[in-house]
Write a structure and sequence with these properties.
The chain is mostly helical. It has 4 helices and no strands.
Length: about 170
């Protein structure tokens, strides 16, 4: 994996976390009902359900796409292999996004517990509002991940439609 490919998601996460930190400290966004633990858990549950459904739908298209690519005579073996690699990369990206949403579910559970227990070390960190900032960050990141899943699937569908159109 090249540096640019891994640096961009990290940069996006840092920017979203910084924005979340600013929002938590300068607004009352953490008081919104949508950001409480029960609502967040429901939201992530629905997201993971949609994501897995989309992923399964995409996997069902792979056979058709591969068959349609194989039927194209004016592509070299290398070009076909490059297209297949792109398909695999698309599904790898979808899987990463699904894992991010799953991690969001776990993080929501952990943060709801951490938020309600007294700091055993006596550190005065309440001013940082870390659970609220992380909850808002994971909310934004998971929503972005779902957007990315949908965008990737729409791209794969468009590729398949173009391949079908080229058969005629």
């Amino acid at each position: 994996m090249n540096l640019k490919r891994s640096a961009i998601p990290i940069l996006i996460a840092v920017i979203i976390t910084a924005i979340s930190y600013w929002l938590v400290h300068n607004t009352k966004i953490e008081l919104l009902e949508v950001l409480n633990a029960v609502s967040m858990f429901t939201y992530f549950g629905v997201l993971i359900g949609f994501a897995l459904t989309i992923y399964t739908f995409g996997l069902s298209m792979i056979g058709d796409i591969k068959s349609n690519i194989s039927k194209i005579d004016n592509l070299t073996k290398e070009e076909k292999k490059e297209i297949f690699t792109g398909l695999r990369n698309g599904f790898a990206q979808i899987k990463q996004n699904i894992w991010l949403i799953f991690a969001g579910i776990i993080l929501v559970i952990v943060l709801s517990v951490v938020k309600d227990i007294k700091n055993p070390f006596g550190w005065q960190v309440e001013v940082y509002q870390i659970p609220e900032t992380l909850s808002l960050s994971i909310f934004f990141l998971s929503t972005l991940a779902m957007f990315d899943i949908m965008r990737t699937m729409f791209n794969l569908s468009e590729i398949n439609m173009e391949l079908i159109k080229n058969e005629d």
